[in-house]
Amino acid sequence: MVSGLDNAGPSVDAASGRAGADAPKLGWRFPGCFWIANIAELFERAAFYGMFIALAIYLTQEVKFTDVETGWVIAVFTFLLYLMPPFMGALADALGFRAALMAAFASLTAGYVLLGAMQHKWSACLALAFIAGGGAIVKPVILGTTAKCSDELNRARAFSIFYFMVNVGAFLGKTIAAPLRTGFNFPGIGHLEFGLVYINYYAAAMAFCALILVAIAYRSPDTAGTGKTIGELVQGFVRVLSNGRFMALILIVAGFWLIQGQLYASMPKYMIRLLGESAKPEWLANINPFVVVLCVVPITHLVRTFKPQNSIGIALTIIPLSAICVAIAPLLQSKTGDSVSILGLFSLHPITLMVIIGIALQGFAECFLSPKFLEYASRQAPRGEEGLYMGFQNLSVALSWFVGFILSGYLLDAFCPDPTKLEQTNPAAFAQWKAAIERGGPMPEAYASAHVIWYVFAAVGVAALMALMIFNRVTSRADRMRETIEG
């Protein structure tokens, strides 16, 4: 089930030799609880990504955390969010899916409301705890429902619907976040001003809609005899951590996700501080899923015969280039000025253009990584424990975002500081920054090396690629020695 999806769902009885009308058929028909669960997932993703793309900005501008404090707070939040699902899945087994989902969406609704209603440091941390707890329940329960409501023949289609809903929700959330932050013109009414706080209220509304949907229409699938206890999961987690080869792979791939996580950690603040509040980092972040949806099928077909480590190596070769693209924007700006014509159709600021290219490269690299990483990771798992290891493969994202958000906080503070901090420490520099944002002109010295942030992340990507090469060499040699001994 949730905490052991390798055992989930009814399987096709191939041994019986049934054919004709009694044999399972390929199709798109699934039980009602499948569709309700996946619509609820769309609401949950729309809520989360709308909030998350603006979270670093919100915690700094509204809650008044420093960049460094913001980095630490979000680092802990994301670490728990990605570490807890296997354990929360076991809790959902005990509570029942419907009760677990209702508790999760109630926790999410309360967390988003609290995050928006009280701009205090302690209340923000409490709100994020509610959100992390609720989110960690939702994912395994929706995945478990998807698995239980599909047979072996149609499971791929079932999960394709799940990932479609995830991407639609994420796209909608980030798209709506930008006009809520900056305001927008509404026909017949005029310009409507909202602000960062309303993004949290929007997220709360989405989570509440999911809660009502589950309360009215969701019915739990049968999960009897499935899942693992908390004790079994803890023992399994210890075994995972003690597997040196698997953990080495997790840490290597974490280099990829550390850079990809800068879509939320560094990019929003970087763009707004260098281009002003009119920048739309929320919309630019949608380029990543757009590229993934567009390219993942053909690239998966292309690399179907590749060794997993070769496909992962391609991803780790591309990902540093995405950071380098953003880093060289000042060089482009020195040649073109503040505007680059795109085929004579429209113009973009050099920073915006290079961020777009960098994000597109991230999505392209992800297409090479995602189809092969789970395959490669599963091969490192001991026979019979593949499901356990896959349950904890999100350790890679948990660790990378923990380190990535902390690193982002220190780098932003050093090279692209909060303008309010500049106002307090160097009013003349703040005045120059404000003039540059409003009327153009040179930025103050405090921002002269802002692009260095991206060179640091590029170096992380290069280090991950080198580590993969060493990993491949060492493990290949170890495998040959074992084969020689066993032979």
Q: What does the model show?
A:
With 487 residues, the chain is mostly helical. The protein has two domains: 200 residues, Growth Hormone, Chain: A, CATH 1.20.1250; 253 residues, Growth Hormone, Chain: A, CATH 1.20.1250. 74% of the residues lie in helices and 2% in strands. The chain has 21 helices and four strands. Strand 1 and strand 2 form a beta hairpin. Helix 2 packs antiparallel against helix 18, helix 3 crosses helix 5 and helix 13 packs across helix 16. The two termini are 39 Å apart. The N terminus is likely disordered.
- Run of helices and strands: HHHHHHEEHHHHHHHHHEEHHHHHH
Order of neighbouring strands in the sheet with most strands = 1-2
Query: Hey, roughly how much beta strand do the residues contain?
Result: under 5%
Q: Tell me about the largest β-sheet.
A: 2 strands, antiparallel
Topology, element by element:
Layout: H1 32-61, H2 67-83, H3 85-95, H4 97-117, H5 121-148, H6 155-182, E1 184-186, E2 190-192, H7 196-217, H8 230-241, H9 244-260, H10 262-265, H11 267-275, H12 281-285, H13 287-302, H14 308-327, H15 329-336, E3 340-342, E4 346-348, H16 350-380, H17 386-391, H18 395-415, H19 419-425, H20 427-439, H21 452-486
Helix pairs in contact: 1-2, 1-5, 1-6, 1-7, 2-5, 2-18, 3-4, 3-5, 4-5, 4-7, 5-6, 6-7, 9-14, 9-16, 9-18, 9-21, 13-16, 14-16, 14-21, 15-16, 19-20
